[in-house]
Fold these 2 entries.
Entry 1:
Amino acid sequence: MTSQRQSKSRSFTDVFGGRASAVGAAPGRVNLLGEHTDYNDGYVLPIAIPQQTHVAIRASVGDTTTVYAADLERSVPFTFASPPTEQFATYIYGCLAEARIEGIVVPALDIHVASDVPMGVGLSSSAALEVATLRALRALLDLPLDNVRIAQLAQRAEINHAGVRCGIMDQMASSLADTTHALFLDARTLHVRLIDLWPGTAVLVLDSGVARSLATSGFNQRRAECEQAARMLGVAALRDIDADRNAAKISALPEPLRRRARHVVTENARVLRAVRCGDPCEFGALMNASHASLRDDFEVSVSQLDWLVGSLQSHPAVYGARLTGAGFGGACVALCRSDALSEISLQVLAEYADEGGAGRVLVPPVV
Ligand code: GLA
C-alpha cells in the first residue's frame, strides 16, 4: 500500500459520506535480533518502523461491514456469517471476530484503511493492520483493552483467521514499540523492556525484491519441527533448553530437528547477550551470527538475501546485518553508522543490481 498522505486516494468521506467516529494507527516493525524464537516462548528484539497503518471507523446500519483499502482502491463487504476471502479484509474480519468471542458486541462498521507499511517483505504490515483496527474499535466502543490485550487479540486474528501459526512478536511490537528503542520481549511472560540504541547508529532495512512465496507453509513447518524437538527433549518449549548445558541432548536429535533446535537456543542466547552488550560492534557481531544460524541451521534464507547481507556486513560503516522476519525472501536489516546510511545503501544496492537483483531501501522511508 502507499501512504494516504502521499497518494490522492479516496478519504473516509469520499467513500462512505460523513465523518469517521474513531481512528486508530499502528506501525510496522523490523526485528533486530531473535528470529523464530517467539513461538518457542523465547526472546525477541524488534523496533517499530516509521511507516504506519491508519484505520478510521464508524458504526453502520444493518449487518454488513464494509472495508475500503485506500491504497488498493478496493471495497470489500462482509458479515460475520459470510467472511471475506480477500487477504487484507481477512485480518480485519479476524480482529472483529476475536473481539466478539471476548464478549464484545461489535456492530456493523464502515472501515477505511490507509497504510504506508511495505507489504509482503517481513515488516509486519498485517500486525499493523490488526493493531490499528483494534485500536480504532477500542476508541469507538470505549473498550477496556490495554496494549498487551490488543496484541493478544491481534495474534489470535492472524492464527485463527489468516492461517499463520505466528508467535506474538509482531503484534506486541506494533502495539508497544516505538521507533527510537528496541523492544526486548519475553514471549512467554510478555514482560517488555525498552532498550536504547547507541547514539550515532541507525537502522537500515533493504528489500531483496524476492517475494516470500513459501512463507506460510515454510513457517508452519518450522514451527512444527520446533515443537517436535521440544517434545523429544522433554520440555514445554525450546526456550527451556540451555545451549551449553544441553549441547549433548541437542546433538542427539535427528536431522533437521538438531539444527532447528540449535538455531533457537543459540538465538535466544544471542538476544540475552545483546540486551546486556556494551557497544554496537558487539551487537553487530550477534546480528551476523544470527544470519548464519538462520541460513545454515534454520534454513529460511535465500541466495539473494545471503548476498545482500554479506555485502552489508563487509561495508566498514555497518556494525552487523541479517535477514529479518520469517525469511524465505523479503528484507534484511543492518545496524549502521547513521552518517553513512545513504552511502551504504547506494553502494550495496548498485552492486546488487550488477548481480541482477532489484533491491530498494525500506527504512528509513523515502519521503
Ligand atoms: C513472523 C511471525 C512472528 C515471528 C517471525 C520470525 O513474522 O509472525 O511471530 O515468528 O516470523 O521471527
Entry 2:
Amino acid sequence: MAEQKKTGFSSKIGLIMAAAGGAIGLGNIWKFPYIAGENGGSAFLIVYLVCVALFGLPLLMTEFLIGKRSGKSAYGAFRTLSGNNRWQWLGWLCMLTALVIMGFYFVVTGWCFSYLVEAVNDVFGGFDATAMTAHFQKIISNKPRMLLFSILPVALTGAVLWFDVNKGIERLSKILMPLLLLMMVLMAGRVLMLDGSNIGMQFFFQADFTKITPHVIMEAMGQCFFSLSIGMGALITYGAYMPKNQNVVATSIQVIVLDTLVALLAGAIIFPAVFAFGFNPAEGPELVFVVLPAVFEQMSFSWFSSVLFFALLCIAAITSTISLMEVAVAFVCEASNNKLNRHKSVLIVSAVVLVMIAVCVLVPQVFTIFDEVSACIMMPIGALGMAIFVGWNLPNPNGKGVLSPAKGAKRVMGKIYINALRWLVPAAIILIFLNSLGIL
Ligand code: PHE
C-alpha cells in the first residue's frame, strides 16, 4: 500500500486518461480494422458492439474493483482477497497472457517505429496500392532491421518502468490522447471526401446479419477483450492506484466509450480508403500499414500529417506496452516476495520478452498464433476466472467482499452487477467457445 501512495495517480481524470491510454493502442488502430476487414466489416462491427456492451462494463468494473480492494497487482490481488492460494492460477494466467501479447505487440510497435522513420524520410510519395503492399513486405522481410525496431520499444517501456515515471505518462496521456483523437477525426473527414468512399462506409456500417458466423462471433469477443485490455490483470493495476473516492462505474464507462470511439474512427478511416484506393479489406495484419500512407498522400501537409500520426501511434502503442509489461513486472516482484526488486524484475521480464519477440519475427506462424490465442482464448479464460472469482466468492457487500455497503439504487445496481458476473458473463463466454468449436 505504501507503493500505492507513491505511484498513485494525482487525479481522477489522470487515472481515467492513463487507463484509457493503456487500453487505446494498436488494438484499436491496427487490429480492429484488420480483423473487421477479414470478418465481413459491418457483421463484425455489430457483434463487436454487442460484446462491448455485454462484457465491457461488468469486466472492467471487476478488474478495477479487484485492484482497488486489494491494493495489489494480479498475483497478490487474488491471494489477498481470497485469503488462500486456490486462485493463484489466475495470477499466473495473467502474467503468461501478458508475455504472449508482448511477443507480437512489440513487433507491431516496431512496424510503427519503422513507418515513423519512413514518414520522416518521405518515402511513400507516388506509391499505388500494389507498391504499398510490396513495400510492407520488403520491410518485414528484413529480419535484422525488424528485430532492431522491436527492441527499441522494449527498451523504452523498460525504462519507463525502471524509473517509475507513471506521473510523466499520466501527463503525456492527458495531452496526446485528445490530439490523436483530433487527428483521426481530421483523417476521417478527408477520407470521406474521396471518390468511392461510400462503398467502404457501407461495408463497415451497413448492417448485414447474414455474414455473422460462429467464427465472426469468436473473433469479435476476442477483439473486445483485447481492445479493452480485459482478462489479463492490466486493469487490476490501475484499480490498485485508484484514488479511494473514485467511482468505478463512471471510470469504466468513460474508458469503454473512449476506446470504442477510437476503434470506430479507425474503421471510418480505413474502410472508405480501402475501397477508394482499390485495396483488399481482408488484406490481413498489414492492412493499416499499406492503407494509411495512401491516405496521407491525399491530405494537405502530407509529410507533417503522416509524421505526426505515426509519432502519436508509436506513443499510443507505448502507453499500452507499459501497462502490459507492468503486469509481468509486478508479478515477478510479488511472486518472489519482493526478493527480486523492481529493477531486477524489469530486466528479467525484458529478457524473456526479447526472446519471444525474436521468435515472432523469425517465425511468422508464431506471430499469428500469439495474436489469435491471446485474444480469443487466454483473455476470455482470464475474464471467466475473474467473473467467477468475484461473482461467487467475493460479493459480500459488508466490506470484506468487493462491493461497498450500498443502499437504494446502488444496491439494485450491485445486484444486477453480481448476477451479470455470476451468470451472464460466464454463460456467454462458454457459449461462444462451444459455438466456435461447432459443439452448439
Ligand atoms: N488494449 C490494448 C490495445 O488495444 C492492448 C492491451 C491488451 C494492453 C492487454 C494491455 C493489456 O492496444
